[in-house]
Automatic annotation (TrEMBL):
Signal peptide: 1-23
UniProt name for this protein: LicD/FKTN/FKRP nucleotidyltransferase domain-containing protein
Location in the cell: Membrane
Keywords from the UniProt entry: Membrane, Signal, Transmembrane, Transmembrane helix
Topology versus the membrane: Single-pass membrane protein
GO biological process terms, semicolon-separated: glycoprotein metabolic process
Gene Ontology cellular component terms for the protein in this record: membrane
Listed InterPro entries: FKTN/MNN4/W02B3.4-1, LicD/FKTN/FKRP_NTP_transf
Residue intervals passing through the bilayer: none
Boundaries of every LicD/FKTN/FKRP nucleotidyltransferase domain copy: 107-205, 220-259
Top-level taxonomy: Eukaryota, Fungi, Dikarya, Ascomycota, Pezizomycotina
Protein's organism: Penicillium canariense
Coiled coil: none
A family per Pfam: LicD
UniProt main location, coarse: membrane
Length: 284
């Protein structure tokens, strides 16, 4: 492993400075979503035709010179990060995200590849260049209402001047239809120094399936489907050495998405899992 997350420990004390206080959402459950805000667009004509967030991933692609458009999502970084700085930046990104969400009372948990990397050693895979988190539907409404475009500054150990992160909410979050293929990402937590970001997707009640008798059905606009009991009640754990929430049936969810092999195969992406150190070591 080419970095140490421990240099960023003690974050919780440092993190509170920039957070302003907003009333927490009262008893956020799936049942308390304000239905008036959410729209189930049925006709194609009402599905947004433009994409709010690009799927651009800073580490993988060089930036066009002078590219600074909001819509393109990489207005902050002038150049891509060197490879060996990606994981430490991602680590700080998830640590700051989890701390802010916890301190404002916004429910979030890790999913997909990030959940799989947690399963192995509670750390980001050394080859990953993105992170996946989910939030519940009441949370996306809460964030849109009080936190859109808010800057959050963190003094991070070893980072001169600290780093500022931006929380940006896709205005199309009110469109609940899976037909909105261009706006499957509901929000982003963006590191303004590097342009790296975390994609945030909202998990919603699947009204269609519920009407057909599947009373626990949940969906995301990215076409992932779950049962309420697969996610809730969330479990408490640690990821990158900070508290994190984990979906209830994590093994079942991981096997569904990646196959049972993904939980036993110690040879992965040019790395080998060392059982003693619990670290993915790069193979020569
Ligand atoms: C958040 O703010 C940006 C910039 O002003 C805006 O484009 C976007 O529509 C806002 N999102 C919501 C959910 O209001």
């Amino acid at each position: 492993m080419r970095f140490s997350a421990s240099s960023l420990l003690g974050l919780s004390g440092l993190l509170s400075a920039s957070v302003f206080v907003v009333a927490q959402p009262a008893d956020s459950t799936f049942m308390s979503v304000r239905e008036s805000v959410a729209k189930d667009y049925e006709s194609e004509g009402e599905i947004p035709r433009t994409k709010y967030f690009s799927e651009y991933h800073p580490p993988a692609i060089s930036l066009p010179r002078g590219a600074r458009s909001w819509q393109w999502g990489f207005c902050f970084a002038d150049k891509p990060l060197p490879d060996d700085e990606v994981t430490p930046h991602l680590s700080a990104l998830i640590q700051t995200y989890l701390s802010i969400m916890s301190s404002i009372g916004a429910e979030t948990w890790i999913m997909h590849g990030t959940l799989l990397s947690w399963w192995w050693n509670q750390k980001i895979f050394p080859w990953d260049n993105d992170l996946d988190v989910q939030i519940s539907e009441p949370t996306i409404h809460f964030l849109a209402e009080y936190y859109n475009m808010t800057d959050h500054h963190f003094d991070l150990p070893g980072v001169d001047g600290g780093r500022t992160y931006l929380l940006e909410i896709n205005p199309n979050y009110v469109v609940r239809s899976e037909k909105d293929r261009l706006n499957v990402i509901d929000a982003r937590w963006i590191d303004k120094s590097s342009g790296l970001f975390i994609d945030i997707t909202a998990v919603r009640k699947d009204e269609g399936k519920r009407q057909r008798g599947d009373s626990e059905a949940l969906m995301c606009k990215d076409r992932h489907h779950y049962q309420e009991s697969q996610i809730f009640p969330l479990r408490e754990s640690y990821f990158e050495e900070v508290p994190v929430k984990i979906p209830y049936s994590y093994v079942e969810l991981l096997e569904e998405e990646y196959g049972a092999n993904s939980l036993t195969n110690k040879d992965f992406q040019g790395h080998k899992f060392n059982e003693d150190t619990k670290i993915w070591e790069q193979m020569k």
